[in-house]
Amino acid sequence: MTAGRPASGGVSPGRTAWTGALATALFLAAVIPARAEVVNRVIATIDGEPVTLFELESFTEQARRRPGGEGVAADQHAMLDELVLEKIMHKQVEAQGVTATEAQIDAYISSIRERNHLDDAQLKEALTQQGLTWEQYRTQVRADIERAALINKEIRNKVNVSPEEVERYYHEHLDEYGVPERLRVRLISRLVPAGAPDEQRSAVRAEAERIRKLAASGKDFAELAKASSEGPGAADGGDLGEIARGQMQSEFEQAAFGLKPGEVSQVIETATGFHVLKVEARVGQAHQPLAEVADAIREKLYRDNLEERYERWLKQDLRARYHVETFL
């Protein structure tokens, strides 16, 4: 299991193995002192302060009770590392004088209820299923708010993305911002009523073949469409505008994307009648302008930089401030 990461837009109580471990340990120690006497021994120290096996077991059990906690590592060494990080984070919160107010705690719990559509009774029932009392939950929320404030102070406010970084990323990943090739297409359609006899259908096909020959011989396709088409855009010379793959029915798309600019298709038969296409132009693959994608790139780079800086701060910089010894 890895340590929790800062979430964009706010903290998420109960999502990491850290939250509420110390409060849980103290609470359980009060109600089952006999077990504490059996299992309690020092398994690590942080600047000389002890971390006990009982604390680790309580910490691990609490993590497993939370939603998604089934996958919590059984490896005691991994869980001890998480517990040590939890305690170091708490020490740093105290050292920095970071505190959460009761109003902040109330507001965050209210947002949790609203987001999950829970009333007070339902929320408390959910907490009971996780083995948390209401007081323990508020302690957990307080810790998460304070931890998020510390992360904002130590990391988030120090991460910046320059315009030069955005532009460099854009040019290095230009293929990600391609615009698919499109065709400028005109259409002439001769329709066949549903249930029409074969003779009528054959007559309509013959008319479509006649129109196609005129178009292929150089007659103005737009004028032919205005005079003869029964399909969309007839009044505009059959102009369908720019079409990308996936925007036409399959028979039309197959014919159109096989044509060069200026070429006229063979007669295309569909359930509704007979059709002739002309490709006026191919709009080659282009790229979205940097101005259109700069904000998305900046957000991506910011998240990546934040994640990298957070991992380094959590696993290296922060731990380097404390002397940790483990005895497992």
What does this protein structure show overall?
With 328 residues, the protein is of the alpha+beta class. The protein folds into two domains: 21-159 and 303-326, Triger factor/SurA peptide-binding fold, CATH 1.10.4030.10; 181-284, Roll (Chitinase A, domain 3). The chain has helices spanning 21-31, 33-39, 53-65, 76-96, 102-116, 120-129, 134-154, 163-172, 198-216, 221-228, 250-256, 290-320, and strands at 42-46, 49-52, 178-179, 182-191, 239-244, 268-270, 273-283, 286-287, 324-326. The protein has a four-stranded antiparallel sheet with strand order 5-4-7-6, sandwiched between helices. Strands 2-1-9 form a three-stranded antiparallel sheet. Helix 1 (21-31) packs across helix 3 (53-65), helix 4 packs across helix 7 (134-154) and helix 4 (76-96) crosses helix 12. 27% of the residues are buried.
Present the secondary structure layout.
Layout: H1 21-31, H2 33-39, E1 42-46, E2 49-52, H3 53-65, H4 76-96, H5 102-116, H6 120-129, H7 134-154, H8 163-172, E3 178-179, E4 182-191, H9 198-216, H10 221-228, E5 239-244, H11 250-256, E6 268-270, E7 273-283, E8 286-287, H12 290-320, E9 324-326
Antiparallel strand pairs: 1-2, 1-9, 3-8, 4-5, 4-7, 6-7
Helix pairs in contact: 1-3, 3-4, 4-7, 4-12, 5-7, 8-12
